[in-house]
Amino acid sequence: MKTWRALSALVMVMCMCAGSALGAQRTLVVATDATFPPMEMVDRNKQIVGFDIDLLNAAAKEAGFKVEFKNTAWDGIFAGLPAGKYDAVISSVTITQERLKEYDFSEPYINAGQVLVVSKNLNVKSLAQMKGKKVGAQIGTTGAMEIKKAGIELKTYDEIGLAFADLAAGRIQGVVIDTPVAADYALQKAEYKNKLKIATEPFTQEQYGVVVKKGNKEVLDLLNKGIKAVKAKGIDKQLEKKWLK
Predict the structure, then answer these.
(1) 43 phi and psi, to 5 degrees?
(2) How far apart are CA 82 and CA 112, in angstroms?
(3) Which of 25, 129, 135, 141 has its CA 20 to 30 A from that of 119?
(4) 3-state DSSP helix/strand/coil % of the chain, to nearest 5
(5) Rounded Cα gap, residues 11 and 17, in angstroms
(6) Per-residue model confidence (pLDDT) at position 187
(7) Class assignment of domain 26-111+207-243?
(8) First and final CA of the chain: distance in angstroms?
(9) Tell me, what's the pLDDT at 58?
């Protein structure tokens, strides 16, 4: 009888431990460069907020994991993945063939093409018309790549806000940036909306995705599960209305 009771107690303890393990949610540490409004930024309360942040939190809720965001400078943000500093990167990252050679991406969660922002008194309608002028972009972005491809003088910045400050001050003549960010700076910010305009329609087709270390299928599956659920429920469209309209 004593042996049976001891065995029963052991089975009960094992079941409780297994239940705790199953009920525990995994926490993903996710890097973001919170200098890219309205996608990711730091608010007045020093909290990281934005479209990307809300989207990943919603995906986490749907897929049953938690997220801890880590504000990380864009220069070197990808290097932290193989170094194990975090599990993923969400920071308005365009899925490109070159990046796919080194990292894995979640399924796309938004399409955001590049546009040209200039001062309101400059009459241009294409990036090609900026020949002979200096155009800014954040370092290592697809915007910077497009400027180089067009054969136009490029000035790079660690933070996109610095590029817009230089544009408003006349130190550069344009900025190439993702559509949502262009809309936020040129159309919404009080200090710029009377000075700047979006001069072009989007001239690239770009899909944002969440980046993970090559071969990290466990994290990738969690992210894709959450993103698919967010899309299926239309949560992504609700967030677009909140942040991008």
Answers:
(1) -85, -175
(2) 27
(3) 141
(4) 40, 25, 35
(5) 10
(6) 84
(7) alpha beta
(8) 71
(9) 98
Residue 76: both structure tokens together: 């070197």
Whether 207 contacts 39, CB under 8 Å: no
Q: Which residues of 32-48 are buried (b: 16+ CB within 10 A; e: fewer)?
A: bbbbbbbbbbeeeeeeb
Residue 89 one-letter amino acid:
V
The neighbouring-strand residues paired with 133 are none
Q: Where in the chain is the domain with CATH 3.40.190.10?
A: 26-111+207-243, 114-198
Whose tokens are 């710029």? That residue is: 192
Rounded CA separation 213/87 (Å): 7
Q: Count Cβ atoms below 10 Å from residue 194 Cβ, excluding itself.
A: 8
> What is the value of pTM for the model shown?
0.74
- The DSSP H or E segment spanning 110 is strand 110-111
Average pLDDT per consecutive 10 residues, the chain (245 residues; last block may be shorter): 44 45 75 94 96 98 97 96 97 94 96 94 96 96 96 96 97 96 89 94 92 97 98 96 85
pLDDT value for 24: 65
Which one is the CATH code of 114-198: 1.10.760.10, 3.40.190.10, 3.40.50.10380, 3.40.50.150?
3.40.190.10
Token couple for 69: 């965001």
